[in-house]
Write a structure and sequence with these properties.
Elements (H helix, E strand, L loop, with lengths): L1 E2 L2 E2 L12 E5 L3 H7 L17 H6 L3 E4 L11 H11 L4 H14 L15 H14 L4 E5 L7 H14 L4 E6 L7 H5 L2 E6 L2 E6 L10 E8 L1 H10 L3 E4 L7 E6 L5 H10 L2 E8 L6
Parallel strand pairs: 3-6, 3-7, 4-5, 5-6
Antiparallel strand pairs: 1-2, 7-8, 9-11, 9-12, 10-11
Length: 281
């Protein structure tokens, strides 16, 4: 996946069939591609079993990008209502769908507020309500809690978790507090580290890993891994077939300087070393 002719994601592979999925620490380009807003240069990306563009155009999926341009003179109700109409619903059906979406997102008291004067959290809730009003099978949301205060983020997360409890969704987000209602509502989390999957499974099983690192190692990788484990570290992800080999390790009581020492003694070279992202703070 390229952005401005520069590869942003290369070789990323994962599959999820969860009903409520958090995709944590993903490049923005991944959400854009899943929402049909950006093409995939190589490989394939499927949403609801088809291409993202087909999924969105066919009403199988709808997206809520982070802070998109909004018509400043429109009211919140007008924006949500027109989303339902543009999705192909009849006037009466669109009215009902928009009312339901506004109610779910707690926007009914603000229905006549113009978008230019609405608070940031209200505008974000409106974008989600517009996606809901399209009545898709799956909702794709881009980092709805980004840059919000702790109180604002928790309030919006609570609203989202309740509003979407009977819907299928994938939320592409930065690491968030473990106590966030969205973490509690998710059935699966996929934690990315660049173009690699750092962890995947039930959110409760993906514990923070402050001493976990992604490495690329050249030379005698087998001897290096054996020596690292012998000194008490835990291999989180075994070496991959690529060269230099990529692996993940939880250091335990070791320090990063110990990895360099072990590599030297094992006829290996650590060519890349960086912390793995913690999914939930």
């Amino acid at each position: 996946m390229d952005v401005g002719d520069v590869p942003t994601l290369d070789g990323l592979t994962f599959e999820t069939r969860g009903d409520r999925v958090l995709v944590v620490a993903a490049a923005r380009a991944l959400f854009q591609a899943a929402a049909g807003l950006r093409g995939v240069a190589h490989g394939s990306l499927l949403v609801e079993g088809t291409t993202p563009f087909s999924a969105v155009r066919g009403g199988l999926a709808a997206c809520a990008p982070l802070d998109p341009p909004l018509p400043p003179r429109w009211t919140l109700a007008e924006y949500v209502g027109w989303s339902a109409r543009l999705a192909g619903h009849s006037r009466s059906a669109a009215t009902a769908l928009a009312a339901d979406a506004m109610g779910r997102m707690g926007l009914v008291p603000l229905a006549r507020t113009r978008l230019r004067s609405a608070a940031r959290t209200a505008r974000r809730a409106t974008v989600v309500a517009a996606a809901l009003a399209a009545a898709p099978r799956t909702l794709l949301l881009e980092d709805p809690l980004a840059a919000l205060s702790t109180e604002e983020g928790h309030a919006l997360a609570t609203t989202l978790a309740e509003a979407l409890q009977d819907r299928r969704w994938a939320i592409f987000a930065a690491p968030m507090p473990r106590e966030s209602p969205l973490v509690g509502a998710a059935t699966e989390a996929v934690v990315l580290d660049g173009s690699h999957v750092a962890g995947q499974g039930a959110p409760g099983a993906l514990a923070p890993a402050p001493e976990s690192y992604a490495l690329r190692v050249a030379g005698d990788v087998t001897a290096f891994v054996a020596a690292v484990e012998a000194e008490g570290a835990r291999i989180v992800e075994p070496p991959q077939a690529e060269r230099p080999a990529r692996l993940s390790v939880n250091l335990g009581s070791l320090r990063t300087r110990d990895l360099l020492r072990i590599a030297l003694a094992s006829s290996a070279v650590v060519v890349e070393l960086r912390p793995l992202p913690a999914a939930f703070r």
